[in-house]
């Protein structure tokens, strides 16, 4: 990891308007006054209970949501969010989604076509590769998304619980790939409920609680406090 920040969040808040009325005054604040930075080559963990704001934070980092207040600063060219609910055109097959996803990350169509066979082989989709992605299981979508990220190598990968699905064989392969990424100075922001995996792979962790930063610091220190909190609940 270098001292240069890939992503910097400063006083970031995000508020959604409730309901469908254009001028509705009812609002929900889902992220409030969040500040941290992610160094280039760092694996940065984000933990918290359901509804804490973890997935929403990743969508802000990916540029899907714009903060209501505060700032997000990026010094990199490409940021890719790997989330089981986002990122694919369900009407396209795996090969077309590979090209589309890669182009959204700044890769050329030609290069993604060249990588398609390797990506499909890594994803282990078998005879389903030619079917529309809408027919894929959760595990198949996770395998395809992870394979695309592995070979297209965006500057920053945002992983939202993707290593918790699929069969044990693929999870082991994905974890081995993650370790290769760490050794290769890939920048990763990693959301997971798996305390052991967070401790092993992350250098620092942000614990979110009710949309706020409860604790930020070295992985083991934060996870000790977080695990104790979970046990007391």
Q: CATH homologous superfamily of the largest domain? A: P-loop containing nucleotide triphosphate hydrolases
As for the CATH topology of the largest domain, it is Rossmann fold
CATH first level of the largest domain: which class?
Alpha Beta
Task: Round the mean pLDDT to the nearest integer and report it.
Answer: 89
* Sheet of most strands: 6 strands, mixed
Helix content: 25-40%
Name the beta content range: 25-35%
Order of helix and strand elements from N to C terminus: EEEHEEHHHEHEHEEH
- Strand adjacency order, main sheet: 5-6-7-3-8-9
Count the DSSP helices: 7
Radius of gyration: 18 Å
Which runs of at least 5 residues are low in confidence (pLDDT < 50)? Answer: none
Shape: globular
Give a structural overview:
The chain folds into two domains: 1-76 and 155-233, 3-Layer(aba) Sandwich (Rossmann fold), CATH 3.40.50; 88-153, no CATH class. It is 37% helix and 27% strand. It is built from seven helices and nine strands. The chain has a six-stranded mixed β-sheet, sandwiched between helices. Strands 2-1-4 form a three-stranded antiparallel β-sheet, with helices on one face. Helix 2 (94-104) crosses helix 3, helix 2 (94-104) packs across helix 4 (138-152) and helix 3 crosses helix 4 (138-152).
